[in-house]
C-alpha cells in the first residue's frame, strides 16, 4: 500500500519570485497565500532585494532540493530581477564543482503566468511561439547545471478564473512545489489522501480519505496486474 | 551604375549596449572604437543609467530606423539591464499605436558575443541549443512590435582573434549598423567602394575603388542578364 512505503526525505522547495509590482498582482498574492501551512517551502521575492550576498545566496540555493522560478511573462521571459539574480549569484562557484555541478540532483520548476489564453502560444496562434520555444534559455540553464527540469506550471488569465478554477490551481500549485513528480497520477492521488487525513477534525474527511485510499490501492493492484500481463508473467 | 542611384535616407542606428562590466570588456571597447566616424550611429550603454525617463527613451527609440541590442550571452540571453530597459520602457505607449506598432518599418539587430566556439551552439554541441533557439524571445518581440529582424552578428571568442580577424569584424560590424541589408553582397561591395573613395588623400585608394566599382558594375550587368535569361526575355 502506498501509505506504508518508506518515506522519502521531505522536499524542501525554494520559490524564487520575480515580479516588480508584486503588491498589485492578484496572481502572486494568491500563490503566496496558497503556501500557508507548507513549512518546507520558502518564498523569496527578488525585487525586494537590493544586493546579493553570495554566501547567503549560495546557502539558500544549496539548502533546497527544488528551485522554482516564478514570474509573469514580460517580453517572453522573466522580469529583469530574475536575470539579475542569475547573472550575479549563479556564478561558477555556485553552479559548478569538479564533478560538474553543485546543483545536480535538484529539480528546477517554472511557474509562469500570463494574461493571454494559453492557446495563443503556438504556431499560428496570436503569439506564434510556444512556451517551450520561448523558455528555451531556462532549458539550457537546467541542462548546463544538471538540474532536472519540470514541465512548467502555467497560469493563464488568473483574473478571469472562477472560484473552482482557483481552487484547482491551489491544488496544482501545492503539488508542484512538494511532490517528487507533480505530473504523476499516483503521487497526486496520494497527496489528496494525505490532505484529507490531515483534517481529522472532520470525520467525513477521514471517510473520504479511506475510500480514496482503497480506490488508489485497487488501481495500484490493477496496474501491477497489467504490467505483469505485458511481461507475460501472468495469463 | 550603383553609385548613381537615388540616395536613400541615411540609416540612423541606436546601439543599445547591455554589459554590467563594460570597462573590462575588450569586445565592447573594440566595438565602441569601431564607431569612430559613424555620425549617424549612437551608442547607449544601459548599465550606466539609473532611471529611465519614458519621454526621453521614447524619443531615443523613435529617432532611429535601426535598433541594435548588443550584449554578451549570460545564461543564454542578454544581461539583466536590457531586460530592465525592455520591461520599463517598451510599454504599450511606445510600441503600439492604433495601427499596431510605432516601431513598424524599423529593423532590429542583435550583436551577441560569447566565449565559446560558435559550433558549441547546436544540437549535439556542448551547449545543445542553437543561438536561433535561444534567441527566440527576441524573435517574438520583433514579431509582436513589427520590427524586421536581422540575422544576428555573432562574435565568438574575441580574446583569441587574430588582428586580421578583428579587422574583418570591424568591417562586418560597421556594415551591420549602417547597411539596409547587411547580408547582401551588393550592398557590402558598394560599402567597400564608398570607403575607399572616402580616403581620397591616398591615390591608390581611388584606383582600387575605380577597379572595384567596374567589377561591381560588370557583376550587376551579368546578374541582370541572368535574370532576363531566366524570365525567357533574352536568348
Plain-language structure description:
- 2 copies of one chain form a homodimer.
- In chain A, strands 1, 2, 3, 4, 5 and 6 form a 6-stranded parallel sheet that branches.
- In chain A, 44% of the residues lie in helices and 13% in strands.
- Chain A folds into 2 domains: 179 residues, Rossmann fold (3-Layer(aba) Sandwich), CATH 3.40.50.360; 52 residues.
- With 235 residues, the first copy, chain A, is α/β, with parallel strands linked by helices.
- Chains A and B meet through helix 3 and helix 6 of A and helix 3 and helix 6 of B.
Write a concise keyword list for the protein shown above:
homodimer; 235 residues; alpha/beta; Rossmann fold; 2 domains; 6-stranded parallel sheet; 9 helices; globular; Flavodoxin_fold (chains A, B); Flavoprotein-like_sf (chains A, B); Putative NADPH-quinone reductase (Modulator of drug activity B) (chains A, B); FMN binding (chains A, B); electron transfer activity (chains A, B)
